[in-house]
Amino acid sequence: MTSPNLTSPSYDARRGQLETYFDRTAVEAWSRLTSDAPVSRIRATVRAGRDAMRGTLLSWLPEDLTGLRILDAGCGTGALSLEAARRGATVVAIDVSPTLIGLARERTGAVPGRGSIAFRVGDMLDPELGSFDHVVAMDSLIHYSGRDIARALAALGARTRGSVVFTVAPRTALLTVMHAAGKLFPKGDRAPAIVPITIRGLARRIAREPDLADFALARTHRVNSGFYLSNAIALTRRGAGPAGGAR
Ligand SMILES: C[S@@+](CC[C@H](N)C(=O)[O-])C[C@H]1O[C@@H](n2cnc3c(N)ncnc32)[C@H](O)[C@@H]1O
Q1: Which of 87, 195, 198, 246 is most exposed, with minimal Cβ within 10 Å?
Q2: What is the total count of domains within the chain?
Q3: How far does the centroid of ligand 1 lie from the alpha carbon of residue 138, in Å?
Q4: 205 domain residue, yes or no
Q5: How far is Cα 206 from Cα 203, in angstroms, rounded to an integer?
Q6: How far apart are the first and last CA of the chain?
Q7: Are 237 and 161 in contact (CB under 8 A)?
């Protein structure tokens, strides 16, 4: 896999763990969670939270995405890519898991209208993907350290004309205890640890990244649905329009 200079040893190591996890360990659980198939009550809360989060992130993009290039960074089974393409976007959807990309291809089929999706297997930071109007990274940076998230955002921001919208796991007392107890997932398909971070701490790191100097932390929104807890954040290039209105 192309490993751009933009990454660090800790980023590369974590990406390798995530590839193993999403491509093998949890591929069935993940496939089920992202489908309409029945799931446990706990996972139903996660599914509902993720649906709400996808809706939030998509609502921060322009309504009409015709002709805009969108990167779905860590696209998983492709639900967000499909909705963006239905709104006219030219989507590049990339994931480190070949199995999930295969599932995404199967599930999305032909996109109606003028939008399109090009699915790719690889690293979301690969410069060969080109430049974008907007980048969306839903729950794909939550396993990386605050330092690696800020560096990833800088790498993505350098190639983004509009906004980078993404999620982070909030640092709350309850989540910290739950993670410590390892109760979020059954042992067999437990993910590499989620790294809870504060928006304030991330904002400080973002302020230190030269490639993000032209971006403002424009919006945040927390989704809390049972066992799903995640903060959405929009970084918007100054003067770039949608996703820019502060909440
Ligand atoms: C929790 S899943 C979310 C998938 C999708 N965004 C969604 O919300 O349904 C995180 C995804 O990010 C992918 N991922 C993590 N790090 C990545 C990287 N550096 N490059 C590409 N994909 C990555 C994982 O393989 C996994 O499919």
Answers
A1: 246
A2: 1
A3: 8
A4: yes
A5: 5
A6: 39
A7: yes
pTM of the predicted model as reported, rounded to 2 decimal places: 0.92
Amino acid at 106: E
Residues near ligand 1 with C-beta < 6 Å? 15, 18, 22, 34, 74-76, 79, 94-97, 100, 123-124, 138-140
Amino acid identity, position 41? R
Answer yes or no: is 42 within a domain: yes
Q: Which of 60, 235, 65 is nearest to 156 (CA)?
A: 235
Does residue 229 sit within a domain?
yes
Q: What angle do CA 99, 182, 122 make, to 5 degrees?
A: 25
What's the sign of the alpha-carbon dihedral 29, 89, 52, 205? positive
Domain range spanning residue 162? 9-68+138-237
Is position 120 within any domain?
Answer: no
Q: Whose CA is nearest to atom 15 of ligand 1?
A: 140
Note the pLDDT tens digit of each residue in 75-124.
Answer: 999 999 999 999 999 999 999 999 999 999 999 988 999 999 999 999 99
CATH of the domain at 58: 3.40.50.150
> 181 φ, ψ to 5°?
-80, -10
Give, to the nearest 10 degrees, the angle between helix 146-157 and helix 9-20: 90
* Whether 118 contacts 43, CB under 8 Å: no
